[in-house]
């Protein structure tokens, strides 16, 4: 049985990635983890209650056909994960939240070296961001039930279900770039921080 999750710092940062209405468009196809929005809302509420740092990442696509393109309904945040006034929102135009943004400088400047990651999609922006976080020396925790993937056709033309795509991305990341865990473990860990304060 793995050891309980324990944060090394008193201020782990919640990084919510691309939680926008764009992914509700039917063009994305079937997805897994239908509870992910509820999980993200629970994480947000816990972070807000404790005054812990959090950042919303918003995808500002430059692709004309993208459902994430600014100026259309899909660009808006999902209601469950919408930022409150005063919360930091960082726009990005690639899959990684670290490319072409001020994210790394903001994290380092505030001493936020421990990240909790959730959002969309597991095999794209979540995986790209978690990989870079690990490579840049941040400690990252990925809430596996707070993110989701979509069905995808693999290199050999075989259709893979969203659960399989999700699980493979988690396997690629866990222990190499981040630690994959459930949101219940994360919430218990921040509860321990609050209790020790």
Automatic annotation (TrEMBL):
<protein>
    <submittedName>
        <fullName>Isochorismatase</fullName>
    </submittedName>
</protein>
<dbReference type="Pfam" id="PF00857">
    <property type="entry name" value="Isochorismatase"/>
</dbReference>
<feature type="domain" description="Isochorismatase-like">
    <location>
        <begin position="13"/>
        <end position="155"/>
    </location>
</feature>
<dbReference type="InterPro" id="IPR000868">
    <property type="entry name" value="Isochorismatase-like_dom"/>
</dbReference>
<dbReference type="InterPro" id="IPR036380">
    <property type="entry name" value="Isochorismatase-like_sf"/>
</dbReference>
<dbReference type="InterPro" id="IPR050272">
    <property type="entry name" value="Isochorismatase-like_hydrls"/>
</dbReference>
<keyword id="KW-0378">Hydrolase</keyword>
């Amino acid at each position: 049985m793995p050891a309980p999750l324990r944060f090394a710092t008193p201020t782990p940062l919640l990084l919510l990635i691309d939680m926008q209405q764009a992914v509700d468009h039917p063009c994305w196809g079937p997805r897994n983890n239908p509870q992910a929005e509820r999980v993200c809302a629970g994480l947000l509420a816990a972070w807000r209650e404790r005054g812990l740092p959090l950042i919303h990442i918003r995808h500002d696509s430059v692709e004309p056909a993208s459902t994430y393109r600014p100026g259309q309904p899909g660009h808006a945040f999902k209601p469950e994960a919408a930022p409150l006034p005063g919360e930091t929102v960082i726009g990005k135009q690639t899959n990684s939240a670290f490319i072409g943004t001020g994210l790394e400088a903001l994290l380092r400047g505030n001493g936020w070296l421990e990240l909790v990651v959730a959002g969309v999609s597991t095999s794209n922006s979540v995986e790209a961001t978690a990989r870079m976080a690990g490579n840049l020396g941040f400690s990252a925790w990925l809430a596996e039930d707070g993110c989701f993937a979509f069905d995808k056709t693999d290199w050999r033309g075989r259709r893979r279900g969203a659960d399989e795509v999700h699980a493979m991305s988690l396997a690629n990341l866990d222990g190499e770039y981040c630690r994959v865990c459930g949101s219940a473990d994360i919430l218990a860990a921040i509860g321990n921080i609050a209790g020790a304060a």
